């Protein structure tokens, strides 16, 4: 314990050095509810949407370089020091963002923010780490993901719905070749700049986070924020052979989730809130061999909504798909009881409130600020939705082209017209 205390004291002393103030172009957002733990996320606009042509999967590689060697510390030192403080480090990749997150005890932000900053401001990006540490992890990620019917269906759904941009694959191809370290460095130099990075914190004040960001991100070069063409929804259908029968039925939209969309996703959600209840979803009556769950995936300028169905065979997929089509048509025709509309609204409001009050909500608000947009209070918007407006929204939805992805035996998989879409 004495050795540990001395190590912590030395680390705190090292972390207290003064630095020049960073450019105000770095977006900083903080929210403090007085909780005993804090969290800081460095959000980088480096998702697969922004990958340069000919370098598919490079964002996945860069993500796995997180917390490796930097000019300030080795990968081993990063791990050991974080363990001494009892913190947790994580890196996540979406189609739009690379997020580096540290969760820690309140008051330890003076150590964890410079640790996060070192992965962005001064990563070494060494070739031997790429070959020995990063690429094996990338390969395992990809090989594991493709064994999931749900993952594969959602990847194909994005490609069919949006084609390019948001349609880019989230992970590297399973049998791709190791990229050159120069291509990784080129992408890193493109995304790691002051206009392309946001620092978001919960459990610490705005002024504190701004001060620390000014100290530790001063070495981040200036640059421009990455952009891509606005997302455009196309829709369509595709089938693919798989040993995991899976069906996705969905629709894409421009902009953030609307109250009608959130309510519809809640209406079709099959996971009960109470362990002794089957729930009131119209899909809850499906046989236990058929699993269906609603999906709502928001992005900065688009949303993908749908239902993901898994079953033992193509017949089960068809039964589940027909149930989804029937449920959508019933809502569009105004054929569901006011009680069920109220239940769906309550569930949608609860889901939105849970997200908003947690760390995910803080990150979403910080991302909205980063994108120069206003944060939407979906709870209030859903409350204003009435049964008539809900039905009209769904009727208009059914007039658009759906996105349908079917995996399984391609000789027997159902097609959209066979499902009643």
From TrEMBL:
It is found in: Mitochondrion inner membrane. Residues 30-172 form the Peptidase M16 N-terminal domain. GO terms for molecular function: hydrolase activity; metal ion binding. GO terms for cellular component: mitochondrial inner membrane. SUPFAM superfamilies: LuxS/MPP-like metallohydrolase. It is a peripheral membrane protein. Keywords: Electron transport, Hydrolase, Membrane, Mitochondrion, Mitochondrion inner membrane, Respiratory chain, Transit peptide, Transport. The keyword Transmembrane does not apply. It comes from the Eukaryota. Pfam families: Peptidase_M16. Its main location: mitochondrion. Belongs to the peptidase M16 family. UQCRC2/QCR2 subfamily. This is Cytochrome b-c1 complex subunit 2, mitochondrial. It comes from Calocera viscosa (strain TUFC12733).
């Amino acid at each position: 314990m004495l050795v540990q205390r001395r190590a912590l004291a030395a680390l705190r002393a090292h972390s207290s050095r003064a630095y020049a103030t960073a450019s105000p172009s770095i977006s900083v957002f903080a929210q403090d509810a007085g909780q005993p733990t804090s969290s800081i996320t460095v959000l980088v606009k480096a998702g697969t949407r922004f990958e340069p042509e000919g370098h598919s999967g490079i964002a996945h590689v860069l993500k796995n370089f997180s917390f490796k060697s930097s000019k300030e510390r080795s990968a081993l030192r990063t791990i050991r020091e974080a363990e001494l403080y009892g913190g947790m480090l994580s890196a996540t990749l979406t189609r739009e963002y690379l997020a580096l997150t540290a969760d820690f005890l309140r008051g330890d932000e003076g150590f964890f923010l410079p640790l996060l900053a070192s992965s962005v401001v001064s990563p070494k990006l060494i070739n031997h780490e790429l070959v020995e540490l990063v690429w094996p992890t990338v390969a395992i990620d990809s090989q594991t993901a493709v064994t999931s019917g749900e993952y594969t269906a959602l990847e194909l759904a994005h490609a069919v719905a949006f084609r390019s941009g948001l349609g880019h694959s989230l992970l590297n191809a399973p049998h791709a070749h190791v990229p050159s370290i120069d291509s990784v460095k080129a992408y890193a130099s493109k995304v790691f700049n002051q206009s392309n990075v946001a620092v978001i914190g919960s459990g610490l004040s705005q002024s504190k986070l701004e001060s620390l960001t000014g100290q530790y991100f001063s070495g981040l070069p200036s640059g421009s924020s990455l952009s891509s063409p606005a997302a455009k929804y196309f829709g369509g259908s595709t089938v693919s052979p798989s040993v995991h029968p899976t069906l996705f039925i969905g629709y894409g939209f421009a902009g953030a989730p609307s109250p009608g969309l959130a309510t519809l996703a809640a209406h079709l959600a099959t996971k009960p809130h109470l362990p002794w209840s089957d729930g009131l979803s119209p899909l809850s009556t499906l046989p236990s061999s058929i699993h269906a769950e609603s999906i709502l995936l928001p992005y900065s300028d688009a949303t993908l909504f749908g239902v993901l169905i898994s079953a033992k065979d193509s017949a089960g997929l068809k039964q589940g798909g027909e149930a989804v089509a029937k449920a959508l048509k019933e809502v569009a025709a105004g054929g569901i009881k006011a009680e069920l509309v109220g239940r769906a609204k309550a569930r949608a409001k609860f889901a939105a409130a849970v997200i908003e009050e947690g760390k995910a909500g803080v990150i979403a608000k910080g991302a909205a600020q980063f994108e120069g947009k206003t944060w939407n209070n979906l709870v209030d918007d859903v409350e204003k939705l009435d049964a008539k407006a809900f039905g009209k929204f769904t009727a208009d939805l059914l007039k658009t082209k759906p996105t349908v992805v079917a995996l399984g035996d391609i000789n027997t998989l159902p097609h959209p017209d066979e499902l009643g879409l």
